[in-house]
Amino acid sequence: MEKNKFHLIFFYFISTFSIAQEQVQVHVGNFALPASQQPGPLVGFGQNIIDKGDFQIFLYLDQLKGKQKNFSEASPSILYGITDKLSLFVEQSVATRFQYGSFKSHGIEDLIAQLEGAIYERDALYSLAQVTLVGNIGFPTGSATKAPPTGFGAMSFFLGFTANYMKTDWYCFTAMAGVIPTSHHQTKFGKEFWYQFGLSKNIAYKADGWILNWMVELDGIYRQRNTMQGIIDYSSGGNVVLLGPSIWFSTQHFIVQGGVSAVISEHLFGAQLKDKYFAAIDVGWKL
Fold first, then answer.
1. Quick one: pLDDT at residue 178?
2. Residue 231 DSSP symbol
3. Bridge partners for 107 per DSSP
């Protein structure tokens, strides 16, 4: 508990610093709407810095499809701006259909509570540069004993950073992070390393009305092998890279973003079923 308190204090401390003077952007292109309604990644994590007091609810639906495998989820979440440089994100995913070969499962997955703080921010009339730190704790509300599993079966910790640069017409970002699951009853899922890149272009907008963008994302994840009941599972872990487009549309209160990413590179350890594509749609509402 004391360690968790330290993490909270640390994120609040770093979020109070900004290296540059703040300047209000023109209401043009990507800046046609407030921060909470501006474009962000569909597959990538973080970049959820919004104005103080803003509150949003989301429903994220996704599917990872492959040969004899189908992982479909529904993930309701909330996002709250604690300050202009610190946000709280809470997500409870539900496995609607997990299928791997002849095995099938469904149910609640692990609950995620996440803080994100801006450690660098430079505002200009036509641009915004930002670097954030992201950290979350995964609570074992899912199951590690189901086949396929719906959770790690123990606490997990996530720490990463994002960097993005937005202009009126263009927006680009990168993000990297590590996931560290803990062990329970000699079962421990492999550590993960995430790496992500994205580029977005404004298609059209109406000042104080709406924003329409397209985006291309490159998302990779490397997983170590799992240890199940003290035995290393040599048919687990590996590296997967996804590449694909998405479309973003937002108004003063509404957000919808959807896209499909193809698996362009996959190296899996041992004997595992291959992935083909990942599809997702995210719908949000600002209260």
1. 98
2. E
3. 95
Q: How far is the C-alpha of 270 from the C-alpha of 248, rounded, in Å?
A: 38
Cβ atoms of residues 150 and 105 within 8 Å: yes
Over residues 226-246, the mean pLDDT reads 95
Handedness of CA 88, 173, 281, 263 (dihedral sign): negative
Residue 188 neighbours by CB under 8 Å, 6+ apart: 154, 181, 182, 226, 227
Residue with tokens 């990644």: 41
Cβ atoms of 83 and 15 within 8 Å: the answer is: yes
Give the pLDDT confidence score for residue 9 in this predicted structure.
Answer: 47
Q: Which structure tokens are listed for 228?
A: 């199940």
Q: How far apart are CA 32 and CA 49, in angstroms?
A: 17
**pTM value?**
0.89
Is the N-terminal amide bond of 149 cis, ω within 30° of 0? no
Q: Which run of H or of E encompasses 2?
A: helix 2-15
Query: Helix H segments across the chain?
Result: 2-15
CA distances from 277 to 38, 97, 159, 258, 270 (A): 26, 16, 26, 14, 21
- Per cent of the chain over pLDDT 70 is 92
Nearest Cα neighbor of 67 from 281, 280, 266 is: 266
Residue 261's contacts (CB-CB under 8 Å, 6 or more residues apart) are 43, 217, 219, 242, 243, 244, 277, 278, 279
> For 145, phi and psi rounded to 5 degrees?
-100, -15
- The answer to whether residues 192 and 227 touch, using CB atoms and an 8 Å cutoff, is no
